[in-house]
Design brief:
Strand content: over 45%
Helix content: under 10%
Structural class: mainly beta
Number of helices: 5
Distance between the termini: 46 Å
Radius of gyration: 25 Å
Shape: globular
Largest sheet: 20 strands, antiparallel, barrel
């Protein structure tokens, strides 16, 4: 272990001559072109595409595997390009083209390069590399020998090279398993319209009985370009199932407040959720973007304890279950930000390019729920968030704060929530970089009784799985990430970490853990790294083999959606 750490730390810092740059040189050679050092002000003569197979000669896999994969077709790549022959070269639109291409799951790499034109202008060369598209993708949470969550999806993300997604999937939890399907067409009939749908059947793992169904259907014209002036999305969802809340391997047993006994109540309840919403967005500006949205929607959320005793059911509803309600609403939302983007490497995905919007993002809105039918709720909800991201001297600092509340006539404000996150990626040095994140999440008069569980792989590595519970959370994650080493076009990195935090209702009592981990990037298969961590608690009890946990993505990926979607 010490020897491996020394090898990783001693690996030299590259000067942007790695994986992606080798692909760019390959793309230039494919078309026999040279770079154009000064493209600004020149007219685009042509759009060229150089698309590499999943497995290149430099990759550690047999090239015969490419016969099982249909490479992304040129028209799929060209339709994402925001410049056409005859346009003047625009660096901002070129960078946005790269960002749009990198959002396509089937592409591991996307770079846009100016090349010398044949008539005095400039050529636009798009260099891409496919990711394996027919895949058994997975998401999982493994703590010691306990497999808490496993999602397997046999998916073709690039059907016949046209970018369509078709999938069958199964999700295994401690109490249920589900089977389902998915279809997504990002460019319906080769237009800017999007269509997607999913549906699943949910079964009890012990009895095999059908317990519920869930699904979504979406149709719309999303905003995909800074120049696009309007967008529209309509979506419907349903979720009808039984839910059991686990702490570790067992259903959470809640202490029932009966002084005559030590009886507990399992946190198990039936869920019936149905929702629909249509949103229109008008987008203004380019250097400074302002998106104004209006929505009309409604939902019905009903939660019923799986108990026969009414007294216990009422207690569970009052203290732990989400609020049952029917709502129809209008909402208005505004989001503003400067269109200042930066491409960085070795932040979370090692050698692959990552896109970051720098500067501030301010967003907020109001939702008015009006009683359209019997027993429908009547309230006003307010939510807003502010983020500021600064990149200077290779240091990436991000601060985010968000708040929301529900206002009801003649009653105390409810669903008060405040969350904040501070994260920082230090400048790279000869041995790697330091990464730190502090997260707080506080709730007041929460009608939904949202409980946060912390421990194990979800932020406090080394502690017992879901050891801490409460409506509030304080968490700090601090890592030293050694400079990754390249192993035949794959990357391996070492991490030393220290976590501190807890979930609680009133009194914060921190738990401290530390440990070591590894990160593995397989760019032919995933943009996310595989995370494997081994942690221990110091000053407290240790959970034995459950110290080891594994999942996809960095620990900093685990954060409340509320920070980015406060309403």
């Amino acid at each position: 272990m010490v020897l491996l750490a020394a090898i990783l730390a001693a690996a030299p810092v590259s000067q942007d001559t790695g994986y992606e740059d080798r692909l760019v040189e390959w793309g230039l050679a494919q078309h026999g072109r040279d770079r154009e050092p000064a493209p600004e002000g020149k007219r685009v003569e042509e759009v060229l595409v150089a698309s590499e197979d999943v497995f290149a000669p430099t990759d550690p896999y047999p090239l015969i595997l490419n016969l099982l994969h249909v490479r992304t077709r040129d028209p799929v790549i060209r339709r994402e390009v925001l410049l056409s022959p005859g346009d003047l070269w625009d660096t901002h639109r070129v960078q946005e083209t790269e960002r749009n291409l990198r959002r396509l799951f089937q592409l591991a790499v996307a770079r846009v390069i100016p090349v010398k034109g044949k008539g005095g202008g400039v050529g636009l060369l798009v260099v891409t590399k496919d990711r394996w598209s027919l895949r058994l993708s997975n998401s999982f949470t493994l703590i010691g020998s306990l497999l808490q969550f496993l999602q397997l999806q046999l998916i073709e993300v690039n059907f016949n090279g046209w970018g369509q997604q078709l999938a069958v999937n199964t999700t295994v939890r401690l109490d249920t398993f589900s089977v389902g399907q998915l279809f997504i067409e990002r460019r319906l009939f080769n237009s800017r319209w999007y269509f997607g749908e999913t549906a699943s059947l949910i079964f009890n793992r012990q009895t095999g009985a059908l317990e519920g169904t869930s699904g979504t259907a979406t149709l719309g014209r999303p905003l995909i370009s800074l120049d696009q002036e309007w967008g529209f999305i309509a979506e419907g969802t349903w979720n009808a199932r039984r839910r059991s809340v686990f702490r570790g391997a067992s259903i959470w047993q809640l202490p029932y407040p009966d002084p005559s006994s030590s009886e507990t109540v399992p946190l198990v309840y039936d869920v019936r959720e149905f929702a629909g919403e249509a949103t229109y967005t008008r987008s203004y500006g380019r250097a400074l973007k302002v998106d104004v949205s209006g929505s009309l929607g409604g939902y019905s959320r009903q939660y019923q304890p799986a108990l026969d005793e009414q007294a216990k059911a009422d207690w569970l509803i009052a203290n732990y279950l989400p609020r049952s309600e029917n709502v129809t609403y209008f909402s208005g939302y505004v989001r503003a930000y400067p269109a200042n983007f930066k491409v960085l490497k070795n932040i979370d995905t090692f050698e692959l390019s990552e896109d970051f919007q720098l500067g501030w993002v301010a967003q907020g809105g109001v939702r008015w729920a009006f009683p359209l039918w019997f027993e429908a709720s009547n309230f006003v909800e307010l939510g807003a968030s502010l983020r500021y991201r600064l990149y200077r001297a290779d240091d990436l600092l991000t601060v985010t704060v968000a708040g929301a509340m529900r206002v009801r006539r003649g009653q105390e404000t409810a669903n008060r929530r405040f969350a904040a996150e501070l994260s920082n990626y230090s400048p790279q040095f000869w041995g790697g970089r330091f990464v730190g994140r502090v997260l707080v999440d506080f709730k007041g008069n929460d009608l939904d009784n949202r409980q946060l569980l912390l421990g194990g792989s979800n932020g406090l590595r080394g502690a017992f799985p879901e050891q801490f519970s409460g409506r509030n959370l304080v968490l700090g994650n601090f890592e030293y990430r050694a400079r990754p080493i390249e192993l035949w076009s794959n990357w391996l990195g070492l991490v030393l970490f220290y976590d501190v935090g807890s979930a609680f209702d009133s009194v914060f009592s921190p738990t401290h853990t530390l440990g070591i981990g590894f990160r593995l990037l397989l760019p032919q298969l995933n943009r996310e790294v595989l995370r494997i961590d081994f942690g221990i608690v110091f000053g407290g009890a240790n959970p034995g083999p459950d110290r080891i946990n594994a999942s996809w993505g960095q620990i900093t990926d685990l954060r409340p959606e509320f920070l980015d979607q406060p309403l």
